[in-house]
Write a structure and sequence with these properties.
3 helices, seven-stranded antiparallel beta sheet, 7 strands, about 130 residues, Pnp Oxidase, Chain A
């Protein structure tokens, strides 16, 4: 399975790592963005804090409950600024249709524009 296959999946299992190296997997909606994948989450979530500390992550296709479908791929995550996060919201709405629009719109109404943030995920370079 390629990174592009993962970026086009319905759900992705994003695994971040605690300070002690413990993996923390989270299922998320995902959308492709060029040669990267993007996800969208709450700004003050623990995954965002872990990514700020350590951008090394893994991603794998998964179902809605987070059960992996395939091997994880090493990647690097980047927390996006407001314009980048707005682009992620648009990509999520484009991919998930009316359900995506309702979810994004409800989140913006509830949390405001700064209450959620986009994350860009790029495949880690091979050594």
């Amino acid at each position: 399975m390629t990174f592009g296959d993962i970026a086009r999946a319905k759900y992705v299992l994003l695994t971040t790592f605690r300070k002690d190296g413990t993996p923390v997997p989270t299922p998320l909606w995902v959308a492709p963005d060029g040669d990267a994948a993007v996800v969208w989450t709450v700004t003050d979530s623990w995954k965002v804090k872990r990514i700020r500390r350590n951008p090394q992550v893994t991603v794998a296709r998964c179902d809605a409950r987070g059960r992996a479908k395939g091997e994880p791929v090493a990647a690097r995550a980047e927390i996006l600024d407001e314009p980048g996060s707005e682009q992620v919201r648009r990509l999520i709405v484009d991919k998930y249709g009316i359900f995506g629009w309702l979810t994004v719109k409800g989140s913006v109404l509830r949390r405001g524009r700064t209450g959620t943030v986009g994350i860009r995920i790029a495949e880690a370079p091979t050594a």
